[in-house]
Automatic annotation (TrEMBL):
<keyword id="KW-0812">Transmembrane</keyword>
<feature type="transmembrane region" description="Helical">
    <location>
        <begin position="267"/>
        <end position="287"/>
    </location>
</feature>
<feature type="transmembrane region" description="Helical">
    <location>
        <begin position="32"/>
        <end position="53"/>
    </location>
</feature>
<feature type="transmembrane region" description="Helical">
    <location>
        <begin position="6"/>
        <end position="25"/>
    </location>
</feature>
<keyword id="KW-1133">Transmembrane helix</keyword>
<protein>
    <recommendedName>
        <fullName>Transporter</fullName>
    </recommendedName>
</protein>
<feature type="transmembrane region" description="Helical">
    <location>
        <begin position="299"/>
        <end position="323"/>
    </location>
</feature>
<feature type="transmembrane region" description="Helical">
    <location>
        <begin position="104"/>
        <end position="122"/>
    </location>
</feature>
<keyword id="KW-0472">Membrane</keyword>
<feature type="transmembrane region" description="Helical">
    <location>
        <begin position="59"/>
        <end position="83"/>
    </location>
</feature>
<feature type="transmembrane region" description="Helical">
    <location>
        <begin position="242"/>
        <end position="261"/>
    </location>
</feature>
<feature type="transmembrane region" description="Helical">
    <location>
        <begin position="412"/>
        <end position="433"/>
    </location>
</feature>
<feature type="transmembrane region" description="Helical">
    <location>
        <begin position="445"/>
        <end position="462"/>
    </location>
</feature>
<feature type="transmembrane region" description="Helical">
    <location>
        <begin position="188"/>
        <end position="208"/>
    </location>
</feature>
Length: 463
């Protein structure tokens, strides 16, 4: 029997509704989350000073929880910048261009390369790493620039980012919010990510090929930017080839180590991050020689700028949702919770289970809907803490399937907001391929919606 719901429970629900509404209206939710933390704190502690401190403490707690994730993204982006500047990425990708002999082969080759690279480098840096080399090769065999953008977008920002099996930033956020181990969410997401990926990409390719046959979609040459002077040659051709083999080999060794030693979550992230730092330092010192010390710092700064720009809006939002579970005691203290409470979200879940007969079908549809709504802000990450909390709520009603529901909400949020439907999230791929982000979003819309519908139905049977 759960604790009787108090005012802070209803305030928490009210702010969740407000957050969902703002996301649906495509407005920023950071301020609302900060206000929510303050109001819950002042109701719980009945102290103005503790409440003001609570807002700051909630940020500290959220940053502490997210810091490994933020750091790994920063480091990976720094490394991707080194690979681009030295030209190693061009050498790494070039052999695959020989496989691109037809538009169909080009579409699937680009997609698979983008997916694999995005697991290690994340999609936005991955687009920059691969686009300049793969786009001309695809255009030469007749694949339109829009088709190239779709392949990079659906496989990178869709399949790779929604699973995020190597860096594990997404599953950590949702797992923490749902009170689950990261490994459980990753395992539960595998059949859903496969379903979503296959249905969406096959549907997208079908429509792409249909319009190419009709002649309504034709390849267009990209606009080549004017050179800004000669670019310094940092490595010889032989050195580039050597490093082009070594870099992916080291990451493959990491993957093998993860499997052999069952490394997940923070351990897996640390292994990838440490490897990336070593590669970054070696490449920078080797390429820039006497300026290597300064350039190492410069690359790290660029990476940190990117990482905190991406996760800056996520911190206040995560702070609010951490307050609903384990973070409450750390931020405001155990005494601030009502007597007998197991946490705000747990209490609400118990009450929901006793008041409304929630079925697994209703739970799956609701989580998908909430995930899609949270993705409308164009981030994909800002709302996945919410879907984790919602999945935890439903667990009390259906008594199983929390990990599957959490993974389903994560997939919906990232496919919508991570860069496949919201136009302003599509800019990296659209810019590389010289296509309109709005046209790319329109092309992705039907395939992604069909994929979400099928994946939601599959989740109903798994729960």
């Amino acid at each position: 029997m759960g604790v009787e719901l108090a005012l802070i429970h209803w305030i928490y629900v009210l702010f969740i509704g407000g957050i969902i509404l703002l996301m649906a209206l495509r407005r920023d939710t950071s301020l609302l989350c900060i206000v929510g933390v303050f109001i819950i704190a002042i109701i719980s502690t009945e102290s103005l000073t503790n409440s003001v401190s609570g807002v700051f403490n909630s940020f500290i707690y959220a940053i502490g929880e997210l810091l490994p994730t933020i750091l790994i993204i920063c480091i990976i982006v720094s490394l991707s910048k080194v690979l681009t500047d030295t030209g190693i990425n061009d050498v790494m990708v070039y052999p695959f261009t020989k496989m691109m002999k037809t538009p169909a082969l080009s579409f699937w080759t680009i997609g698979i390369i983008m997916m694999v690279s995005s697991w290690f480098f994340w999609p936005s840096p991955g687009v920059a790493l691969l686009g300049a080399v793969l786009l001309p090769a695809a255009l030469r065999v007749g694949l339109p620039g829009l088709g190239v953008a779709m392949a990079m977008n659906l496989f990178g920002h869709g399949i790779a980012l929604s699973g995020d099996y190597v860096i594990q930033a997404a599953p950590k956020l949702t797992a923490d919010a749902a009170g689950l181990p990261v490994g459980d969410v990753i395992e539960a997401s595998i059949p859903l990510v496969i379903t979503m990926g296959l249905v969406t990409t096959i549907t997208a390719f079908y429509f792409l090929r249909r319009d190419m046959k009709r002649g309504t979609l034709k390849p267009e040459l990209p606009v080549v930017p004017e050179a800004e002077g000669e670019k310094a040659v940092l490595l010889s051709s032989r050195q580039k080839k050597w490093f082009a083999v070594l870099v992916p080999l080291l990451f493959l060794v990491d993957v093998a180590a993860m499997a052999a030693f069952d490394l997940q979550g923070g351990d897996a992230t640390s292994l990838i991050g440490g490897t990336a730092i070593v590669i970054l330092i070696v490449l920078t010192l080797f390429a820039h020689k006497s300026k290597g010390l300064e350039e190492t710092t410069s690359y790290l700064i660029k990476g940190f700028q990117f990482g905190f720009k991406v996760f800056g809006p996520v911190i206040p939002i995560a702070a609010f949702f951490y307050l609903g579970d384990a973070g409450f005691a750390a931020i405001l203290g155990d005494q601030a919770l009502p007597k007998g409470s197991a946490g705000i979200v747990n209490d609400l879940g118990t009450a929901l289970a006793g008041a409304i007969p929630i079925t697994k079908e209703i739970a799956a549809i609701t989580v998908t809907g909430v995930g899609a709504i949270t993705g409308l802000d164009g981030s994909g990450f800002s709302g996945i803490s919410l879907v984790g909390s919602v999945a935890q709520l439903f667990e009390h009603s259906i008594e199983s399937g929390a990990a599957t529901l959490t993974a389903l909400g994560q997939i919906a949020a990232i496919w919508v907001g991570g860069g496949t439907l919201v136009p302003w999230a599509l800019i990296p791929a659209a810019a590389i391929c010289n296509v309109s982000p709005f046209e790319l979003a329109r092309r992705n819309l039907v395939p992604v919606l069909i994929g979400l519908a099928v994946t939601t139905i599959v989740a109903m049977f798994i729960i």
